[in-house]
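2024-03-11 09:14:02 INFO worker-7 job=invfold-0412 stage=load source=structure_tokens
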């Protein structure tokens, strides 16, 4: 079998790889051919998946619909620059809409961005949760870790994420939120909440 034939036929390529392995006579030329064959096979596997995702599945969306400071009824969602710097004990509540775009919600994660081993600046809890839509499997839903899993058939969910400041060891803190749908081989969504801290208080 020629190298050209193997490179242009996935089945032939697989057979060629098996022959190389069985004979155990891997010369420099053979190694180069194996590397080329593997790259060719990788393209055969990946390209159809990427095309299927881009043509049929839509990425999920995280929409922040409201941002509230302590008991203030002012909505800062369109004016985050006016949100006061936070001191210990201050709370920020974020209203969120999760949309899987018809692919089914899978998991949602909210967590503080911090270095490994560093103390948390804030705590995160969920309120106004659609409990009936959540998975009861602890591997998918662990509210203490900011993780929510959803039952099959749930495409849209509305909830609130409440953060409370416990220490002022930086000038700002970031809460990252991630959403994944049940669509296969598609990227999830990410949203970032930046909160300024008042270290003078």
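2024-03-11 09:14:09 INFO worker-7 stage=emit residues=201
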């Amino acid at each position: 079998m020629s190298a050209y034939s193997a490179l242009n036929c996935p089945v032939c390529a697989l057979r060629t790889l098996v022959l190389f392995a069985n004979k155990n006579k891997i010369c420099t030329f053979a190694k180069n051919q194996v590397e080329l064959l593997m790259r060719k096979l990788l393209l055969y596997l990946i390209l159809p998946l990427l095309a299927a995702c881009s043509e049929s599945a839509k990425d999920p969306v995280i929409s922040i619909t409201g941002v509230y400071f302590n008991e203030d009824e002012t909505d800062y969602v369109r004016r985050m620059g006016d949100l006061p710097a936070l001191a210990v004990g201050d709370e920020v509540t974020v209203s969120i809409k999760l949309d899987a775009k018809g692919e089914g919600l899978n998991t949602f994660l909210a967590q503080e961005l911090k270095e490994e081993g560093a103390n948390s600046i804030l705590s995160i809890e969920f309120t106004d949760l659609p409990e009936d839509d959540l998975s009861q499997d602890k591997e998918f839903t662990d509210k203490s870790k900011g993780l929510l899993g959803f039952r099959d058939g749930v495409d849209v969910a509305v909830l609130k994420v409440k953060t409370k400041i416990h220490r002022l060891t930086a000038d700002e803190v970031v809460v990252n939120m991630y959403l994944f749908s049940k669509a296969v081989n598609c990227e999830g969504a990410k949203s970032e909440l930046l909160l300024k801290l008042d270290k003078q208080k």
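2024-03-11 09:14:09 INFO worker-7 stage=report msg="The first helix runs from residue 3 to 7."
2024-03-11 09:14:10 INFO worker-7 job finished
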